[in-house]
Automatic annotation (TrEMBL):
GO terms for biological process: regulation of small GTPase mediated signal transduction. It comes from Bifiguratus adelaidae. Residues 1079-1318 form the Rap-GAP domain. Residues 921-944 are annotated as: Disordered. This is Rap-GAP domain-containing protein. It holds the Pfam family RALGAPB_N. Residues 932-944 have a biased composition (Low complexity).
Length: 1339
């Protein structure tokens, strides 16, 4: 006795011995069922019958025959049905409640099957009984006869429950009440059906292990028959008046229970699976059916992945998750693979489904195909399974373009195909048939507004795989990108679920992947009509103004020369379109994240194209400058823009070649930028931008010598830096000081008009000129002193940055690398070690030169910020200094000093000599004409004027000092024009006045004095001739300490400057502190940032770290060339720069790079040479331990990987498992492309989670992947730019890692902090007499 539809499906056959009560009238059956049900399930408080009443199987079957009729009762009798459901549930799950005969005779399986059969009867759709017409009079006295009562508004035509209408109610009210009661009855029936489905599911979970195969088959056929009866359009249940409503309500629970029981049964009966497939395809017009299939197939796929690829992939159970419910199934591996195969092929061709289900089906296929795998399946295998459906879906000729859901499904098909073809094929290449069909479909899809977003989002890897003929699609992708960037095409509409920001980001990632390809495939021709459907950037910029259109024309001109050398209609012509897109998008983009992405792309594009496109570097600098000067960029974008400009400093030679004024205009613009921010009064927000602007400004100022001859620009830079230095000190007197500056500048007229802006400036109430003055003459528009934004912390940060810029400006301009420095840029500080010289002096004479007895070296602190040491070289054994800082014996008669200065920028030494040279001027002839005091020629005894000859360490001034002039040469005699008209003294005095008498007396006395002196001289003259000769005392006969002479001549010993200088006693404490200053950050005179980067080679991502380290020189030549491109190889035994933890005993040479601000050393196990005479038993570490020690502080690791399979796993193992790189947070993978793409490299950047070091910091960095650059994940780079870009990205990533771990401090701040502390420790309050006594006597 079961649902008749099950028999019609030929799943089960009716038993003639059952259903014997169905011939009885309904009233009789109801009375019988009610009586038996009440007996077996009495009301609460009454005892239940003893199970022993069922003494035989015949008794049990008779009772069950009666109970089974309860599932066929009308809706009005559902209370009886509810009790029957409860009785069967108790018999199933409570063993002590089961009939005695069933337990004793072992008839549980037949017993279970009967229950399942009869439960199916409940799922027969039914409605309420119809209501008979009533002739009862209404409240108004009239009678209502044959009134048609409106039925329920739900699907079907339900009747009404017979009742006695309340008097006085209108027919409409009565009908409404009846509809509400009918709805309650129908809902109650549906809830009972759901309860039975729950019983089915619980039976499978709890009783399933005890079921025989026959019982499982019966249960599955019953549930399958019920599902098909309600969900199939052809079934009788669906056609009944109430069937559709019931099917819609029970669809989800029916499918959930069916799939759970089917998989839990582990059934492998082919015929039964075929019936399931046949029935399933009749339900696919319903969306929940496709969703349930998606969930089941995805769960089986994930479990199969675990079986196929190991414990690190997939899931360990089949977990079906849908609509917030989870069904975990622990199934055997063999059955999982079998069920996975059968389930995947259960769905029909998605193109035959309704539009909504068409999209859902393809979405499910896409989820099954998604997910990175260590060894992805063969692409041909997937295409054999789904390829026909997918290609047919991409064409979709039978679907209307206005059908949104159909277009979503089509786009999903494109996404699946792009992901399939983006997988690297390790076994067999894609069949040519599939490739051709894919290219044809893609060329159409890239011009479809509904499919383009999905294609762009899933094609970033497409050009990195060795796919035959992929370069053919490059023009089509350019067309597609220009439909999105810089603005959406006018007729393009966004698909639901895709934001404009994400779409534009996908287009930028495509640009990152294709920007290097035109140069590589320069001989490939473009087909005619390739640009069909491409929107021109210039037309879009028309509405933005003439300046933007000028930019577009400028970009076209840039490639004219390059295009003339190339073949017409060749692939390199696409470079202009790519650059147009990037530049125009920089103007239209509003997303901060996308703007930062664009800046990275422009940075990379400039480095790659600077050799091929004259004018490009200068143009990009001008574009970024113009964008900055709009003053509208968010802070994070502005910081990124400054970083890009600082990276482009390395291209300053190309910038100068292209446009000599570009560096000048950029520096002036940055000065205006800083002045504007300083005037805003909001330092709390702006101080990071000011610091970065200062840093960027000084880098461009020091790039070459261009600013030396530009007095006006130099003045503007100094004024801007001075504003930052005096920011905390400026107060009420600032306006007055600026007024003075205004008057001077008006007289000199040195204001610089801002350069022509490529982007429109934001309207501001006050316009700031190039000198930082507004119309009112106030710096940057004036400071709001009441603004609470002026805080001490921010002011100090700005002041420190400005002071460092000024120090660099005066110390580094024209002095990098140091002239005639044999070590080049490896050292920016002096090689002379004054502290070592003190130690050597003590060792040579330990008795006379104790701790405080070194008299020829003096130390002072000047202004609390500079520590100087004066080494007096005029000793008993004169010495000189060679280029390597060593003191060698020499002869010298003049006072000579070696001045060593330590400040925040480093340590410098100057060699000074005080020379007394003869004058060879007109003094001799002048002496002859005057009264001679000697009887000999005085030309040999001219005045000796002290002329110090200044010699920079390592530099000898080839020009002799100019001969000074005699003081007499400076006396100028001038005859007045009206000299004859000048009155004499006698004319001025009155003739008989007292003044005339007094004047006469004075004249008389003067004449007498002259006569007396002449007489005395005449009496004292000897007959011998006399000559004037110099004193025999020379500087050899006096103290050899001349340091105070120099200090005095420099003005430091004047009384007004006595507080500026503090003498230091040379003792062990002072020497140790200075040694610490020189060795900050493990680098002598650490003015620059020192970075170590790990560089490894791996064949695949599956290699063990031990294999990676112990290579035995097995690396390819291409890797060694890459290693050399990161820097220049240095011999560590003679290297004077930063070495990290490398030592020449096990690493003779290593790649090294240095510039004005950074030193980098690259650690690679390829370069390690462990001595053969050293063994691990003697304490020398093995290669793995040695490299772990070397790279223990490396934040960034660069890995050259021939095969990227498993590269993410490798990064996790290197950081977490092996502990080889405990601090590494960023892994940059370089994958050389093979085949026709030789010379191109795919860059993948991974920030693995977890690890023992800075877990939270690593997550912060992973959430902000654009925090460093210029390379971003997924870029394809040409070989000629690979080394530079990897080096710049590694440095930027290293700085980002230190920032997020809060361990980054700029080197000059470390030195400044130490010097400040040293100054406060050494500062003493002594009297003026004691100060001069200590300086002069060194006591």
């Amino acid at each position: 006795m079961f649902l008749d539809w099950i028999a019609q499906l030929q799943l089960l056959q009716h038993d003639a011995q059952t259903d014997i009560l169905s011939v009885l009238p309904l009233a009789t059956r109801k009375s019988l069922v009610q009586a038996i049900t009440t007996y077996l399930h009495p009301p609460q408080g009454h005892p239940t019958p003893d199970p022993s009443v069922f003494s035989s199987l015949a008794h049990v079957k008779w009772f069950m025959e009666v109970i089974g009729q309860g599932f066929t009762l009308p809706l009005e009798d559902m209370q009886i049905t509810t009790d029957d459901i409860t009785i069967y549930a108790q018999w199933l799950f409570e063993l002590n409640q089961r009939p005695k005969a069933v337990r004793e005779e072992g008839l549980e399986q037949e017993f279970f099957q009967i229950i399942f059969h009869q439960y199916s009867l409940l799922f027969e759709p039914r409605g309420p009984k119809p209501v008979a017409p009533s002739n009862r009079p209404t409240s108004t006295g009239t009678s209502v006869q044959n009134v048609a009562i409106p039925l329920t508004l739900s699907l079907g035509t339900p009747g009404l429950i017979a009742h006695t209408s309340s008097p006085g109610l209108s027919p409409a009210v009565v009908a409404q009440q009846q509809r509400e009661k009918n709805a309650i009855l129908i809902q109650r029936h549906q809830e009972l059906c759901k309860k039975v489905l729950t019983v089915f599911a619980m039976a499978g979970r709890t009783l399933g292990p005890t079921f025989t195969k026959e019982t499982w088959i019966v249960l599955l056929k019953v549930v399958l028959g019920i599902t098909d009866y309600l969900l199939s359009d052809f079934a009788d249940g669906y056609k009944t008046p109430y069937g559709k409503e019931m099917a819609n309500e029970l669809c989800v629970p029916l499918l959930r229970v069916l799939f759970e029981l089917w998989l839990r049964s582990k059934i492998e009966d082919v015929e039964l699976w075929n019936i399931f497939k046949k029935c399933f395809r009749r339900w696919t017009h319903r969306a929940p059916v496709i969703q349930q299939w998606n969930a089941a197939s995805l769960a089986l796929t994930q479990r199969s992945i675990r079986i196929l690829y190991g414990p690190t992939e997939g899931t360990d159970i089949v977990n079906i998750m849908l609509s917030g419910t989870s069904i975990p199934l622990d199934l055997p591996d063999e059955f999982v693979l079998y069920a996975w195969h059968r389930t995947l092929y259960m769905i029909p061709n998605p193109c035959t489904l309704p539009p909504s289900n068409f999209f859902l089906a393809l979405q499910g296929i896409g989820r099954d195909q998604k997910g990175p795998l260590p060894s992805p399946p063969d692409g041909n295998t997937i295409l054999h399974m789904f390829g026909e459906w997918l290609f047919e879906a991409t064409y979709s000729t039978n679907r209307s373009p206005q059908d949104q859901e159909a277009q979503l499904g089509r786009a999903e098909a494109f996404g699946i195909l792009c992901r399939i073809f983006s997988q690297t094929q390790t076994r067999n290449a894609f069949l040519r048939t599939y490739i051709e069909r894919f290219y044809v479909a893609l060329a159409v899809g890239l011009r479809s507004d509904s499919c383009l977003p999905t294609i762009l989002a899933n094609s970033t890897k497409l050009f990195a795989v060795n796919l035959e003929g992929i370069r053919m699609l490059l023009p089509d992708f350019v067309v597609g990108v220009k439909m999105v960037l810089p603005r959406l095409a006018t007729d393009m509409r966004l698909s639901p679920g895709i934001s404009l920001e994400s779409l534009r980001l996908s287009a930028m990632k495509i640009c990152a992947a294709i920007m290097s390809l035109p140069n590589h495939y320069e001989n490939v021709h473009l087909s005619s009509g390739w640009d069909q459907g491409m929107q021109p950037v210039g037309d879009i910029l028309v509405g933005a103004g003439d300046q933007e259109r000028a930019v577009t024309e400028l970009l076209k001109v840039l490639y004219i020369q390059d295009a003339s050398d190339a073949k017409p209609n060749a692939l390199p012509t696409l470079k202009r379109y790519i650059l147009e897109v990037l530049v125009a998008s920089l103007r239209t983009e509003v997303s901060s994240y996308n703007l930062r992405m664009l800046l990275h792309l422009l940075n990379v594009y400039a480095v790659q194209e600077v050799y091929f496109c004259p004018g490009l570097a200068a143009t990009i600098v001008q574009i970024i400058q113009a964008k900055l000067m709009t003053m509208t960029l968010p802070p994070d974008v502005a910081l990124n823009a400054f970083q890009v400009l600082m990276d482009l400093v390395h291209l300053h030679e190309y910038v100068k070649r292209d446009s000599k004024n570009t560096p000048r205009e950029l520096v002036l613009a940055l000065c205006r930028y800083v002045n504007t921010l300083l005037s805003s009064g909001n330092l709390t927000t702006n101080y990071p931008l000011i610091v970065s602007a200062y840093d960027c400004t000084i880098r461009w100022v020091l790039a070459g010598q261009w600013i030396v001859d530009d007095h006006d620009c130099c003045t503007a830079v100094i004024n801007t830096i001075s504003m930052g230095i005096t920011l905390p000190e400026r107060g009420s007197d600032m306006v007055a000081s600026i007024d003075v500056q205004i008057d001077k500048k008006k007289k000199r007229e040195t204001a610089f008009p801002p350069p022509k802006q490529l982007f429109a400036l934001q309207n501001r109430s006050k316009q700031i000129n190039a000198n930082g003055l507004d119309a009112n003459g106030v710096v940057g528009g004036g400071l709001n002193k009441s603004n609470p934004g002026f805080h001490r912390k921010e002011e100090l940060a700005v002041k420190l940055a400005a002071e460092y810029c000024m120090s660099q400006f005066v110390n580094q301009l024209g002095n990098f690398p140091p002239w005639r420095n044999e070590t080049g840029v490896t050292r920016t500080s002096t090689l002379f070690d004054d502290l070592k010289h003190i130690k050597t002096s003590r060792e040579e004479d330990p008795i006379s030169k104790g701790e405080d007895e070194v008299t020829h070296i003096e130390f002072y602190i000047i202004d609390g910020r500079t520590i100087i040491s004066i080494v007096d070289l005029a000793t008993a054994e004169p010495v000189k200094v060679d280029l390597h800082g060593k003191l060698n014996t020499a002869t010298s008669a003049e006072p000579r000093f070696l001045l060593v200065m330590r400040d925040t920028t480093g340590k410098y030494s100057w060699l000074l000599e005080s020379r007394y040279q003869e004058l060879k001027t007109k003094a001799t002839s002048r002496a002859k004409d005057s009264t001679d005091v000697s009887t000999q020629d005085s030309s040999s005894e001219s005045f000796s004027v002290s002329m110090p000859q200044l010699t920079i360490h390592g530099i000898s001034n080839s020009n002799s000092p100019a001969t000074p002039s005699s003081p007499c040469d400076n006396i100028i005699s001038v005859k007045a024009v009206n000299e004859d008209q000048l009155p004499t003294l006698d004319e001025l005095l009155e003739a008989h006045a007292d003044s005339m008498a007094l004047c006469g007396l004075i004249r008389t006395l003067a004449d007498d004095q002259q006569r007396m002196e002449s007489a005395a001289i005449g009496r004292a003259v000897d007959t011998r001739s006399h000559s004037i000769s110099p004193s025999s005392l020379s500087h050899r006969d006096i103290s050899t300490r001349h340091g105070y002479h120099m200090l005095s001549q420099l003005g430091f010993l004047s009384l007004e400057n006595r507080d500026r200088i503090i003498p230091l006693k040379v003792n062990d404490n002072i020497i140790n502190q200075l040694r610490t200053l020189d060795t900050l950050n493990d680098h002598p005179a650490c003015r620059r940032e020192c970075v170590t980067i790990s560089v490894l080679y791996s064949r695949t991502g599956f290699e063990d770290p031990q294999q990676i380290i112990a290579r035995d020189n097995a690396e390819p030549d291409s890797f060694r060339q890459f290693l050399s491109s990161l820097g220049w190889m240095v011999d560590l035994s003679s290297h004077t720069g930063y070495c990290g933890r490398l030592d020449p005993t096990f690493c003779p040479s290593a790649p090294y790079y240095a510039d004005r601000h950074t030193e980098m050393i690259f650690n690679s196990p390829t370069l390690l040479k462990i001595p053969t005479d050293q063994t691990t038993d003697e304490g020398f570490p093995n290669p793995l331990q040695l490299y772990q020690r070397i790279c223990s502080d490396d934040f960034v690791c660069v890995l050259w990987v021939d095969d990227l399979l498993g590269y993410r796993r490798l990064s996790k193992r290197l950081r977490q498992t092996s502990n080889l790189l405990p601090k590494a947070m960023v892994f940059i993978f370089v994958n050389p492309l093979s085949g026709k793409a030789t010379g191109l490299f795919w860059v993948r950047i991974v920030i693995p989670p977890g690890g023992h070091f800075a877990m939270i910091a690593a997550q912060r960095l992973a959430d902000n992947p654009l925090a460093f650059g210029p390379l971003v994940d997924g870029m394809i780079i040409s070989q000629h730019a690979l080394g530079v870009l990897i080096r710049n990205t590694s440095l930027s990533a290293h700085q980002a890692c230190r920032v997020v771990t809060e361990s980054y401090t700029r080197p000059f701040l470390l030195r400044k902090q130490f010097i400040d502390e040293f100054y406060h420790r050494s500062r003493t309050h002594i009297s003026t007499s004691d100060l001069f006594t200590e300086i002069l006597t060194h006591s």
